[in-house]
Specification:
Blueprint (H helix, E strand, L loop, with lengths): L4 E9 L2 E6 L2 E7 L1 H10 L5 E5 L11 H8 L6 E4 L5 H9 L4 E4 L1 H5 L2 H10 L4 E10 L2 E6 L4 E6 H10 L4 E6 L11 H10 L4 E4 L5 H9 L5 E4 L1 H4 L5 H10 L7
Parallel strand pairs: 1-4, 1-12, 4-5, 5-6, 6-7, 7-10, 10-11, 11-12
Antiparallel strand pairs: 1-2, 2-3, 7-8, 8-9
Helix pairs in contact: 1-2
Length: about 250
């Protein structure tokens, strides 16, 4: 089995890390710079930083905050929120990001994926998919999960791969923040449909949930927020548990 990755996610609003349930009822979870440094020291494999209101507020990601976070981490660092142009990506990579994640802008203009992959390489481009089950189908949502689209999730992930993205970050809005487990069936469907890595997001609350998303969901990486921010499950403890269950992680 290939090495699986554990990725803390920092959802940032007004310069602070926040966390909610089903994308709503946000509460403060700390300083993103301090949390980033802690995770880098605590054996996280990567870090994801999402400026969650950048698109809604029609502004760019906070480049200065990216610069401060990147200064204290020594692990791969992915940044998203309000990214819509080649210039946006260039600014974030220059500020210290290793990868960027796009969502709303890619749904609006799918050719953006092609342009960014060509300009910076597929390894830099992660496409985030916020999905919710509506009317018997999984439907893509944009603008921080606030706007449903007519795009079907399973069709979209195939297009994302075909346009040159290097990874897919799949967030189940139905599971987000619930701590009741990841959307394993959907994650497995997506993982089987594409040949690029799939990061599962939304619902991690117990160590067993991570085991199941790797085994049943066939995910390449698992992303979580509040259980790490509030130290409910230390990352090293989670990795040791997974190792005992035969799932390989970086220790």
């Amino acid at each position: 089995m290939l090495t699986k990755r554990i990725i803390p996610c920092l959802d940032v609003k007004n310069g602070r890390t926040v966390k909610g349930v089903n994308f709503l009822d946000l509460r403060d979870a700390g300083d993103p710079v301090e949390l980033g440094a802690t995770y880098a020291n605590d054996m996280a494999d990567e870090l994801v930083f999402l400026d969650i209101t950048a698109t809604l507020e029609k502004r760019k990601t906070l480049v200065d905050l990216v610069d401060r976070v990147s200064a204290v981490v020594n692990i791969p660092f992915t940044v998203g929120g309000g990214i819509a142009t080649v210039e946006d990506v260039s600014a974030l990579l220059n500020a210290g990001a290793d990868k960027v994640t796009i969502n709303s802008s890619a749904v609006k203009d799918p050719v953006l994926i092609d342009r960014l992959a060509k300009e910076f390489g597929s390894q830099c481009i992660v496409v985030a998919v916020d999905t919710k089950y509506l009317g018997q189908e999984d439907i893509v949502h944009t603008h921080g999960g606030s706007q449903p689209t007519e795009v079907r999730t399973l069709n979209w992930v195939k297009e994302i791969e075909s346009r040159g993205a290097g990874e897919i970050m799949l967030t189940s809005m139905d599971h987000d923040g619930t701590k009741q487990g990841f959307a394993n069936k959907l994650t497995a469907k997506v993982s089987e449909m594409v040949n690029i890595p799939v990061i599962a997001s939304g619902g991690g609350g117990k160590k067993e949930h991570f085991k199941s998303v790797f085994e049943e969901g066939k995910a390449d990486a698992a992303l979580a927020a509040s259980i790490f921010h509030f130290n409910e499950i230390p990352i090293i403890e989670l990795k040791q548990y997974l190792s005992e269950k035969g799932i390989t992680t970086r220790l």
